Structures are given as structure tokens and as C-alpha cells.
Amino acid sequence: MNFILIALVVLGGIALVAAVILYICSKKFAVHEDPRIGQVVSVLPGANCGGCGFAGCSGMADALVKGADSGSIEGLFCPVGGSAVMGQVADLLGMAVANSEPKVAVVRCNGTCELRKRIAVYDGLKTCTAVNACGAGETGCGFGCLGCGDCVSACQFGAIQINPETGLPEVDEDKCIGCGACAKACPRHVIELRKKGPKGRRVYVRCVNKDKGAAAMKACKAACIGCGKCLKECKFEAITVENNLSYIDPDKCRMCRKCEAACPTGAIVAVNFPPRKPKAEPGVEVATAAKNGSENKEEA
């Protein structure tokens, strides 16, 4: 009986000492969370898409609170919630937030099945990451879209789908919130986030091929050949040509569309613009002018 009592006393003493140690450790190493973080998390949409640059909404909330303590939350923006949610967060933290222009994902590849010849057959794991690790893929272009749909799997909003006829991803502008998940998933960086632009209008180079002109054209008939004609046409210094590839800076572009007309391969595209008026042939213009002149004389 004494052995049982001794065992109980020893165990009770060990439990008491352990409880005291745990209590001291909990007080000494306690992590105090700012209650505002939970309040900000409740305002954020909870998509945890990473479009803000943080692992999830809790990370974004922590950054917002720290930014408020330092006096500015500039540069922090939730693409899912947009300006409305950021306005609520700013009111909650007593800060001012700058309006951020909405962005949309664009696919910088026009290498459809017709324009890019198939030179190989890939028989393996059907993901862009796997195909890219094996080499150039099934076409001669080692830069363009692989069409396996990693971007589709990465999008949480159903804003991007693979067109079965062209083999290229297409972005639904109404669903895209500019989180950038598709751009991160693309191993060839074919997808880029760009400003949505006034009335959804934007001009960009739909090619990422950095090969020299002849090699690029051999791989894809719609490739940018780095000829520089668009650079000469631009009066706003919005275009640069580097590594045989043109790029249009969305911050400098005034969307005059002169570069689009100058591109010999059609690599530059203008989205959501009204169709251009067809140019009349010189002979037709002269004939029309002569006809109008004769009609005016008859009336006189």
C-alpha cells in the first residue's frame, strides 16, 4: 500500500513541476497577436490566392497592420477584393489607400496549331512543367505556350481555359481578378499581368520568342522577329527591343496602334478596340473624287 501512495505522490509532484514549467514557458514565450489582424482578415475575401504577394490573407493582414503602424500601406493591394475591400481595410486601420488600376492576365503567345508546326510527339506526364523540363515540347518553338493547362489548374476563379482548336489558353476578362496565379504556374512565363486599360483596351506583343528573326519565323509564323519597325513608329518611347524581342511598356503606351500596323508578322495585338476602317485603294479614291467632281458640275 505504501508503494502505491509513494508512486502517487511522485507522479503528482512530477505533474505539478511540469505544470509550473509549462506555465512559465507560456508566459515567457507567448506570442501576442494584434487584434487588428483578425479584424482585417475578416474583411479580406479569404481566397488565399497569393495575388497580393503573400502566402494567404492572414499574411496580407499582418503586412497591412505593420504598414499602418509604420505610417503607410502603399503598395499593398488585394486583387480579389479590389478597391472596395481595400477601402474597408483603410477605414479600419485609419489609413488612406491609393487606388490601384486593375490588371488582367494576357497570354503572350499566338502560336496556334496552324502557325507552329508539330515536329515531335510527347508521351509523358501532361503538364507544362514536365514538358518544359524535357525540352522544347512538340513544336520548334522553345519559348511559346505548351498548352497542357497548368495555368487552368492554378486559376481558382475559372477565368482561363484552353481553346481546343488553337491549343492556347484564353482569359475571360470578366472573371480574371489579376491574382497572377496563372502567370506563376507557367514555366515559360508566357502569361503576364498587364493593366486592364481604359475600356479594357491594351496593346502588347503576343510573343516571347527570343530567337533571331529567321529562326523565330521558322518555328512560328506569328513570331516577333525583332526587326524594330514598331520601335521606329512609336513616338512615346514605349517600345524596347532586347534579345530579338519587342516589348511594350503599358505605363508609356498611348495606344495609338501605329506599332500594330507596322508589325510585319502581326505579333502586336490591340484588344477591345473598334475595328479599323478599311483603307481604299489609291485608284478607287481617284475615281471617286472624279465622279464627285463631275456630279457637282452637272448640278451647277
TrEMBL record:
InterPro entries: 4Fe-4S_dom, 4Fe4S_Fe-S-bd, 4Fe4S_Fe_S_CS, 4Fe4S_Ferredoxin_RnfB, Elect_transpt_cplx_RnfB/RsxB. Binds 3 [4Fe-4S] clusters. It holds the Pfam family Fer4_7. Residues 32-95 form the 4Fe-4S domain. GO terms for cellular component: plasma membrane. Its cofactor is [4Fe-4S] cluster. One of its GO terms (biological process) is electron transport chain. It comes from the Bacteria. CDD domains: MtMvhB_like. [4Fe-4S] cluster 3 binds at C155, C176, C179, C182. Residues 276-300 are annotated as: Disordered. [4Fe-4S] cluster 1 binds at C49, C52, C57, C78. GO terms for molecular function: 4 iron, 4 sulfur cluster binding; electron transfer activity; metal ion binding. The keyword Acetylation does not apply. Residues 145-165, 167-196, 215-243, 244-273 form the 4Fe-4S ferredoxin-type domain. Keywords: 4Fe-4S, Cell membrane, Electron transport, Iron, Iron-sulfur, Membrane, Metal-binding, Repeat, Translocase, Transport. The keyword 4Fe-4S applies. It is found in: Cell membrane. The complex is composed of six subunits: RnfA, RnfB, RnfC, RnfD, RnfE and RnfG. Part of a membrane-bound complex that couples electron transfer with translocation of ions across the membrane. This is Ion-translocating oxidoreductase complex subunit B. It comes from Prevotella pectinovora. The lineage of its organism: Bacteria, Pseudomonadati, Bacteroidota, Bacteroidia, Bacteroidales. The gene is rnfB.
